[in-house]
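Z., the sequence and structure:
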Amino acid sequence: MSALAIVLVFLACLALTSGSVAVSIKIAHRWEIYDHPDMPRKLQDRPVPKLGGVAVAVAFLAVTLTFFGLTGRTVDLGLALGVLVPAVLMAFLGFLDDRRHLDPYVRLAFQAGMAGLVWVTGTRVDVTGNSLIDFLLFVLWVMLVVNGINLLDNSDGLAASTTLVAALGAGIIAVLAGQELVSILAIALAGAALGFLWHNWHPARVYLGDAGAYFLGFLLAVLVVRLRPDKLDEWQGILVALLLVALPVLDTFFVVSRRLLAGTHPFTAGRDHLSHLLQERGNSIRLSVIQLQSISVVSALLAVVLVVAS
């Protein structure tokens, strides 16, 4: 894979996503598809359009499918569809959740089903040597990352910047490992995240919505476990995957553990995330996001260093 191709995919996804999100803002205003203020949890001073995630998914698909078509990579296209089709279905689930507020257990069941679909189409992990246990671990992993990204979507720019850093790290590792398909999808995902971030940085003009969070989280969950650096054993590969998505995993465990200790149901919404903790200590939204992204950057760099050192 040439460096030029990678750069072009990144720039194309960045530009098309930015333009698509701008269009989605106008559509959301016309159809009044908003995320409304909901004190004390949602502190924005006005309703904010929340079709951004749909625009991200459309732009990402347009760029990646065009790339595979123009380059004649029919084999890669077939493999990519095994990931892209479930990702689109995840975005559709999120869109329905945005509109109808689905039962949490319905959402989890659907996420597990999409993880199973990806498993069937070839994305596997081999942690224990027992196929059933490995399958269940993979399903839990997908659900953890998907909901982790969704939970991070609580401050302007946080989910998008986290996806950007993780996808860039995964893309670099995939390039080093010679995994062309994974590198293209990861770099395209980074471009899409940056294109959305242009509109979502504080003060946000648009939100991802569950559709976007599910789409980004699902792609991240699958891409990081598909990384196969030659010199790393299975457990080192797990460490690399965890380092790439350290922030959503950390925030999820922080929130869930606090709620359980407080006797609160883990599905209860609240301002008890790491970003909220920083903001309650006087940090601005922008500063809290930058501080949390320092965790993402350091952990992603550690993942890359581990691969290079091997």
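The beta strands are 34-35, 48-49. Residues 3-31 form the longest helix (29 residues).

Let me know what you think.
H.
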